[in-house]
Amino acid sequence: MKKVKIVAGCVMTFAxxxxxxxxxxxxxxxxxxxxxxxxxxxxxxxPTDFVPGEEKDLFLNRNxxxxxxxxxxxxxxxxxxxxLTNRExxxxxxxxAEAVVDNTEKLTKDKYLEIMSESYNKAYGEDVGxxxxxxxxxxxxxxxxYKIVSEYQKSGEEKIHQxxxxxxxxxxxxxxxxxxxxxxxCEALFEKSIATIHVx
Length: 200
Known about the structure:
This protein has about 200 residues and is α+β, with helices and mostly antiparallel strands. The chain has five helices and nine strands; from the N terminus they run ααββββααββββαβ. It has helices at about 5-10, 10-30, 85-90, 110-125, 185-195, and strands at about 40-45, 50, 60, 70-75, 130-140, 145-150, 160-170, 170-180, 200.
């Protein structure tokens, strides 16, 4: 197993998280938005073992590249609280949800697995065997969301473990992704960080 391969994939993984988060956000925000409260920001404590990476909102283990664990954060806007011109929509497609969403549909374990499997298999060029080991509905400061635990493994590399926390609000979806390789000893740090998540 080559740790360096996993480390080299950190930025790609972060990009995948962003792409998948947009799709997930579109489904997750299909909850009746009138029932969701407005939120202006999400905060959480980054463990001292992690430092900012080159990508915005990406935090890498301070022992990188020996340790490949990472934390990624993003916030997606559904666009319902702002009016964008067609040009602005083209320039900032990540700021608006998909145009057509079934308002009766909610994010499910199967839907999440479908979205993430497609993204990761396409990016890695093989079936990485993504499996969802836990899918929980959670509530943080009165805002609904999900805590999803999954794992996958690319050929010749260590197994990757992920915890994704998604928090929904009227206009914003907050996604925090915690990722570690099989031999990275930071699961307890991740859980402590998750316990500090707050939305206002």
